[in-house]
Amino acid sequence: MSARSLRCTAAAEWSRIWTVRSSWLLAGVTALVVLSISILVGLEAADDPAGVPADASAWDGGRPTAMFALFGVLALAVVASTADHGTGGIVPTLQWTPRRHLLLVARVGVIALTTSALGVLLVAGAGSVVWSLVPEIGLPARQGAEVLGGVAIVLAAGAVMAVGLGLLLRSTAGGLVSVSALVLVLPMLLAQLPYGWSQELATVMPGSGALFLVFGEGPSDDMTTTSARLTLAVWALGALLTGGARLLRGDADR
């Protein structure tokens, strides 16, 4: 795998993603939702300054928007990874890039990096919006690095998992349903069931790991930052291995 071939393939993947309307639409909707929520949070804090904790900062107001950014990143990653399977464009793609491992590396890298970077920028923007509305609470750089660093891990792992599921299922609808179930539905459902096994299972779902890294809370008191990161890494790697295996070994049009 030469560096030049990888650059050319990555450039082609970048063009494929950002020359279609759906990518811009998803990115725009995600930005609108994230920034709108940050405005509401900032206005609420400005209207009731007594209710703001003394040690709070603008990053605490921007932190909740990370989960909304996550769903936008997941949706964009799924759509970007499955679009050419739905249109049949994967066949000419593989004719131009017959070395499938090269396509896999470029596709996963470009989608995961661009979507997670977009999410981090939006969360950073959300914190800045809250600060502009409530300047007295401050926007400390050190806390910002910690918050955005944790958000970056969540978004990157989520994007890789979404791409892996997209490559595995080769269906936009199937990929969206799968990531929604793993990140939102199943963790909440399992955590509410009155069984020990359901509580334990909830802690190893990717959605629980994401919630813990963003908010510091999860369905179990036994969760730690290390366990949450490990959970996300395992899900991302598992999805990538299974989805990548299908791309490398399966028929492109099935």
Automatic annotation (TrEMBL):
* Residues passing through the membrane, by range: 24-46, 66-83, 104-127, 147-169, 176-197, 230-248
Q: Classify the source by domain of life.
A: Bacteria
Q: Which UniProt keywords apply?
A: Membrane, Transmembrane, Transmembrane helix
Keyword Membrane among UniProt keywords = yes
The name on file for this protein is: ABC transporter permease
> Organism source for this protein?
Nocardioides deserti
